[in-house]
Write a structure and sequence with these properties.
heterodimer; A: 13 helices; 77% helix; globular; B: alpha/beta; 8-stranded mixed sheet; 4-stranded antiparallel sheet; 12 helices; 33% helix; binds adenosine-5'-triphosphate; binds magnesium ion
Chain lengths: 325, 328
């Protein structure tokens, strides 16, 4: 009952938030010079004022701002994000084609960064003077200071061009034929470097936080109790301490979700990953307003869903969150 | 009857910023099966450290047993392997702590935390261990044990948490239960309930209890013998009634006089509250070869500053580490 209610409440908030995002995005785009008519005329190789006006009338661009906004929101509510004249496709279709690639990249990077970060954090918290501590410190320094595109290019040159361990670009090799697993491995090989690049920034963050959190938890009274029960030190650390130490890390990961998504734009550009980032990049250059708006809308949607999932994950590790009465 | 636990010349050293200090210096005592022995003394005198040493749980890298033996059932725990200590902890010797609010893990249910001990030491299946935890919660008188067993600690009051801790400690029917100020964090009525519970459980299980407390009333009610600790050293040891009737150490005398007496007629003039003047020496001074109580003592003579008092034994089983014990 408690959880269902919360989810329902969060969904209502999410919808309000999305409407706000739509209004804001649409207004900003409206303020910027140039509109769809310009794009169309450009693709036709230029047009005179009469034709431009005609286009504006037929697309409702002559209407007052508030009417255009209302119409846009009504359309979005029906999952119609407009039509891209640059790609000659409905925006929704365009985005849904690219979304899976971005989600794959973002989720792989997040999971890898979280998993490795937590493992490193725990190991270094257990042995405050051990080797793993230097690894964590180095990673943190590296992750904070190295720009994503630089890391990406460095990895690309080293592992793809020099030693040919991984493919250079894209998401799949079209020449490959075979069953599901053949394609799975192909995509995984393409995914590896981009995910490592994107994950590297967040790995630093997560490993440092989990180390700090773990050290605090290891000194707590309930860890002493767990030892006093005669549990093995692995049980004490990986059962009693870890579940407590995870909460702040999960919270941070949730907060970082939007940062990961924007990081993905850069990484996709470096590795020609066929996702939303590449699409965003191209449509901004082409001034393809409907597509840009659509991408912004979907990014907001992804971040909101990510936060909702974070909330649920927190509930799983900490029963006090949301406090059942 | 051979003692269940024999602590011989125990010395525990703490490594602090100021160097190495003996928090426990030359402590010897025995504990018989089924007996309740009480530890009293001011804050910081090393009661908890003694308890942790018995459990093999001294703070890592800070504390260590520097000398002496802890002989439990014929086995020297100060020499035992980690694995051996793990098998004993929570099984044959278990402990309940001073802080019920923070000593239970907030993210596991009470039932899981109790069942876990049973699985670890008695190899019970998940189902059997869970059923047994309900029994144990019943035994520590938590109402509705069947539904409370899947509660989380934050859903329980301090008294209930301490009961759950007791259930956890008694799960494997230990031979020794160490209760480190089990009621300090609780309000007075709950304190009385917990002591009653401990008394009853002790009768049922036959466990020996080491009761660390500031509550002289509880000592008088529950314990057969007591040890008075001062600055890491034993001040006095003996049967509770004998010590209360005739303390042989000036510090014990002071402690007993400190206990306020409730008057049945509130219109009578109240006694002033008594305190032991002065403060406990700091950890740095613990190793000195003199009586550490000297600066606060009304019976101070030169002998007290010249060397550490030796133990005086009395016919009634009492013993006191004071140069003036006989004259007191
Ligand atoms: N982890 C630690 N590191 C350094 N010193 C410590 C540590 N734990 C305790 N001490 C010191 O050891 C001494 C004995 O502490 P202990 O906890 O045994 O006292 P206690 O008799 O149990 O007091 P209380 O009645 O307050 O519980 C104190 O002076 C304390 O400051
Ligand atoms: Mg203590």
């Amino acid at each position: 009952m408690g959880i269902l209610r919360t989810i329902l409440l969060r969904v209502v908030y999410a919808i309000l938030l999305l409407v706000a995002v739509l209004v804001l995005n649409f207004s900003l785009m409206h303020l910027a010079p140039g509109d769809v008519a310009d794009t169309i005329s450009q693709s036709m190789g230029g047009a005179d004022q009469e034709i431009l006006d005609e286009i504006r009338v037929s697309y409702g661009l002559d209407q007052p701002f508030i009417v255009q906004l209302g119409r846009y929101i009504a359309n979005v509510a029906q999952f119609d994000l407009g039509y891209s004249f640059f790609y000659n496709q409905p925006v929704t279709k365009l985005i849904l084609e690219r979304l899976p690639a971005t989600l794959l990249l973002v989720i792989a990077a997040q999971i890898a960064a979280l998993f490795i970060g937590v493992v490193l954090g725990v190991i270094s918290a257990r042995k405050p003077n051990g080797l793993s501590n230097y690894v964590v410190t180095f990673l943190a320094l590296f992750g904070y200071s190295a720009p994503v595109f630089w890391t990406g290019i460095l990895l690309l040159i080293t592992f793809s061009l020099n030693v040919h361990w991984f493919p250079v670009a894209g998401m799949r090799d079209v020449t490959i034929e075979g069953g599901f697993w053949v394609h799975f491995i192909d995509v995984a090989r393409h995914l590896f470097l981009p995910a490592v690049t994107l994950g590297s920034i967040f790995l630093a963050l997560y490993s440092r936080l989990s180390r700090a959190s773990m050290m605090e938890v290891l000194g707590s009274d309930y860890v002493r109790t767990a030892k006093a029960k005669g549990l093995t030190s692995n049980q004490v650390v990986y059962k009693h301490a870890l579940k407590n130490a995870l909460s702040p890390v999960i919270t941070l990961a949730g907060l970082q979700f939007s940062a990961v998504l924007s990081g993905a734009v850069l990484v996709e550009a470096v590795f020609s990953w066929p996702g939303l980032g590449t699409l965003a990049f191209q449509s901004i250059i082409a001034r393809d307003t409907p597509t840009i708006l659509g991408i912004l809308f979907f990014s907001a949607l992804v971040v909101i869903i990510g936060n909702l999932l974070t909330d649920l994950a927190l509930r799983l590790v900490d029963p006090r969150v949301g406090g059942q009465k | 009857m051979s003692p269940l636990l024999e602590v011989k010349n125990l010395r525990i050293e703490l490594t602090t910023r100021d160097g190495v200090a003996p928090v426990i210096d030359d402590l010897s005592f025995t504990l018989n099966p089924g007996e309740t022995m009480s530890f009293v003394g001011e804050s910081g005198c090393g009661k908890s450290m003694t308890a942790l040493a018995l459990m093999g749980l001294l703070p890592e890298k800070v504390g260590r047993v520097a000398a002496g033996n802890i002989i439990f059932d014929g086995e020297d725990l100060s020499q035992a392997s980690d694995e051996r200590l793990r098998a004993i902890r929570g099984n044959e010797i278990s402990m309940i702590f001073q802080e019920p609010m923070t000593s239970l893990n907030p993210v596991f249910t009470i039932g899981e935390q109790i069942a876990e001990v049973l699985r670890a030491h008695q190899g019970l299946s998940r189902k059997a261990a869970w059923a047994q935890s309900i029994e144990l919660l019943n035994a520590v008188r938590i109402p509705n044990a069947k539904s409370r067993v899947s509660d989380y600690p934050f859903q329980m009051s301090g008294g209930q948490r301490q009961r759950a801790m007791i259930a956890m400690a008694l799960a494997c029917q230990p031979k020794i239960l160490i209760a480190d100020e089990p009621t300090t964090a609780l309000d007075v009525t709950v304190q009385a309930q917990i002591f009653d519970l401990l008394t009853d459980l002790r009768k049922q299980t036959g466990a020996a209890i080491i009761l660390i407390t500031h509550d002289m009333g509880a000592v008088a009610e529950m314990a057969e013998r007591m040890i008075v600790m001062y600055a890491g050293r034993k001040a006095e040891l003996g049967p509770v009634d004998q010590i209360i009737e005739h303390p042989r150490h000036p510090y014990t005398k002071g402690l007993i006089e400190c206990v306020p007496h409730i008057q049945s007629d509130p219109s009578l003039e109240r006694h002033d509250l008594v305190e032991v003047p002065g403060i406990v020496p700091s950890l740095r001074e613990f190793g000195k070869d003199q009586c550490l109580f000297a600066s606060r003592c009304a019976y101070l003579t030169e002998a007290c500053l010249a060397s550490r008092p030796t133990e005086k034994l009395f016919a009634n089983g009492q013993s006191a580490d004071c140069w003036h014990a006989e004259g007191l």
